[in-house]
Amino acid sequence: MIVANVRSRxxxxxxxxxxxxxxxxxxxxxxxxxxxxQEEGLDxxxxxxxxxxxxxxxxxxxxASLPLFAYVVVRQAxxxxxxxxxxLADYAAAILLHFGLRDRAQRVGDHDDETYDTLAGLVAAAxxxxxxxxxxxxxxxxxxxxWMSGLFPDFIERRRWRRGGPDLDYFEQLGRRGFQLxxxxxxxxxxxxxxxxxxxxxxxxxxxxxxxxxSDGLLFPNNHSPDRLLRQVRDxxxxxxxx
Length: 243
What we know:
The chain is mainly α.
């Protein structure tokens, strides 16, 4: 099961590299980052506005570990949308790291033989007779919907226009439903995940838009289609005036 554990995976080497990256902006930035780390802790330091540009724009940033890079990128994207909950950023970063491995996005668990490539298949399995597996499927429904709608919105839009596939609203609806079901499951309370899943359901649109910004800017920066522009305009209005 995916949990919000990216920050806990950061090492001394990660922190040292992050300090060195921020220090490239000058002595004032270095002193500020060291003071923040000492007085406010690692979480506050990772919010330093100089860290993300250094990761993306300087040669030394290429040496960052995947956990450090993923958390900072997701955290800054969410901060831009006004979402300050660090656990939510940690969880979204964990989804990116976990689903980036082989066919993990299509499997409910590492050793689960079933594979799913549609939300409909996950919805059908979310009410299965085995309570533990139903819980895992419900959480996976939310995770998979966020992964697809967050990182591959252009693919979803193209498929909608060419083949009549579901739109982003459909992914949001079922993703929120998956997290809501998981939050209400007794196993969520037992594992301390009920509040996280409830928040992920509530803030799913903000999570999706934040990941869209990462996808548009870092993964697929050369797509300038009218569909993307319309999505960005629509989402910008939604970002500024959430329902």
